Structures are given as structure tokens and as C-alpha cells.
Amino acid sequence: MSGLESAINGLWTRYDADRIDASTATESDLETLDTFLDALESGEVRAAEARNGSWEANEWVKRGILLTFGLRQTTAREYGDVAYNDVLPLADTASYGDRVTRNTPDGTVVRRGAHVGSDCILMSPSFVNIGAHVGDGTLVDSCDTVGSCAQIGADVKLGANTLIGGVLEPVEDAPVVIEDGVSLGAGCRVTSGFVVGEDSVVGENTLLTPRIPVYDLVDEEVRYGRLPPERRAFTRFVESSIGDHDLFDGGAYKPAVVATTLEDRTLEATEREGVLRS
């Protein structure tokens, strides 16, 4: 896709990222962006990829998404009986059935430029934003949000009411990544470029963000921004230094994440949910 990358970078340079003006876009420019969106939806290009053991943003892809917003006019559109206004239509999901992917009605929204793989289940209501990549065999449950550019692997389970944050700007920052085989319990939130390692199981209502430490009891390390593969993770609260303040009678605590081995049996509720889904 080197030709498409060159075309997007050329548009970025020509329009100057700080002064993109939709009124000056040519038909050829919009055709280039349509080709770019098609490549995102097919999975040919991705907003981030693993290189040498770490995830890196593809800056040109994120530039293409920003250009897509900047070079198109907001237009009145319809989604069923609902009128809305946006620069893009929703994704065409007509081919989902051919690859055994289900998207239930009444509120399952996939935005143009999002990739959804084969054998996926998208329960309503849920939302998958532009630039997101949802791998084969993944479940996006009710009330889930998959943010712009988020990278969701294959055979992932996103529990109900899960938030996967989007990272579109700055373009050099990697988005949230959920690697293959991960199971996130209901109510989890993963934000700000956090990476959840493959085959990990995360307990309900856990917040994973680079600002909250991960106490990895397996390697006996404190980590930030990443949960290693094959871990069980859950929220606990540790003492905070502000507990010394007179206002905090009885002490004060701050959230932390504890990571143990998959053999640890502390997350029985998550296990039961996994059995029910299997």
C-alpha cells in the first residue's frame, strides 16, 4: 500500500494539517480518501502494528483519518428512522453475513472506515469507530464502545458496558491495543494507548490506563501502560500518601491493578462468564 501511503502524506503536506479546509477539497482528493477508507475496512491497512515486540502507530493512517474529517462537509443522513449529521455514512454491513459476522439491530453502529473481521458478534447497542480494527471471532457485547483506531485482536471477548478508548491525536501515539484471546469483564475501561497482552483475563470494572500501576506478581515488577500476556488482572486499592492529611480520617487509598497467573482462582465470576460464553 505504499502508493496509498504516499498519496495520503501528499495530501497532508498540501493541505497543512493546521488549516484543512473542506471547501478546497477536489473530487480526486475525496476519491483518494474513499480508497483509503476501503483499505481500512478490508484490514489492508491499520492504525497501528506490532513491530519488534511493541506496538507502533502508523502515522500516515491517522493522518488519513484526520483528513477524512477535515476535507468532507457535514451532511444530513439517516440511520433507520433516525436522522443524524456527519461527514461520513455508516459502514456498509451487507457483506457481514457472508463471513458469518452478526450485528444485531436497534443500535449496533459501525462507522465507515472500521474493520470488523469474520465470525464476529456485535451486540446492540454498541459502537465501533473509524480506524478501529476488530479481529476474527471477537465478541463486542451490549453497550460497548470501541474507540477510533483501537486495535482489537482475534477471539477477544469484550464484556458488556466495556469502553475501549480512542487515540487519534497526536498521530505518533499508539492507540489502545487488546491482543488476541483477551477476555475483558463487564464494565472494564481501557484508555490512553494501554496494551493488554494476549490471552489475559481482566476482572469486571477494571480500569487500565498508563497512569495506574500494574503490580505484576508473576515477574515481581510494577508496570505502566501494559498488562503482560497470560495474566489475570483485577483492581485493588493501595495506600495513598494523601492519607496523612487530616481530612482523610482512617487513611486514603488509590486504585491499582494486580496481575497474577492464569492459574490464580481469585476471579471466579469472570471464569463463570467465560464458561457461559464458550
Radius of gyration: 20 Å
In total, the number of strands is 26
Could you name the CATH homologous superfamily of the largest domain?
Hexapeptide repeat proteins
The secondary structure category is alpha/beta
Net shape: globular
The proportion of strand residues reads: 25-35%
Stretches with pLDDT under 50, minimum 5 residues: none
Strand order of the largest sheet: 5-8-11-14-17-20-25-26-22-23
The third-level CATH topology of the largest domain is UDP N-Acetylglucosamine Acyltransferase, domain 1
Main beta sheet strand tally, sense and closure: 10 strands, mixed
Q: What's the order of the H and E elements?
A: HHEEHEEEEEEEEEEEEEEEEEEEEEEEEH
Instruction: Indicate the mean pLDDT.
Output: 92
Describe the 3D structure.
The protein is of the alpha/beta class. It folds into two domains: 2-75, Tetrahydrodipicolinate-N-succinyltransferase, N-terminal domain (Tetrahydrodipicolinate-N-succinyltransferase, Chain A, domain 1); 76-277, UDP N-Acetylglucosamine Acyltransferase, domain 1, CATH 2.160.10.10. Helix content is 19%, strand content 29%. It contains four helices and 26 strands. It has helices at 2-15, 27-42, 59-70, 268-277, and strands at 48-51, 54-57, 75-79, 82-86, 102-103, 108-110, 115-116, 121-122, 126-128, 133-134, 139-140, 144-146, 151-152, 157-158, 163-164, 177-178, 183-184, 189-190, 195-196, 201-202, 207-208, 214-216, 221-223, 226-227, 231-239, 253-261. The strands form five sheets. Strands 5-8-11-14-17-20-25-26-22-23 form a ten-stranded mixed beta sheet, with no helix packed on it. Helix 1 (2-15) crosses helix 2 and helix 1 (2-15) packs across helix 3. The longest helix is centred in the first third of the chain and has 16 residues, at 27-42. It starts with a helix and ends with a helix. The mean pLDDT is 92.
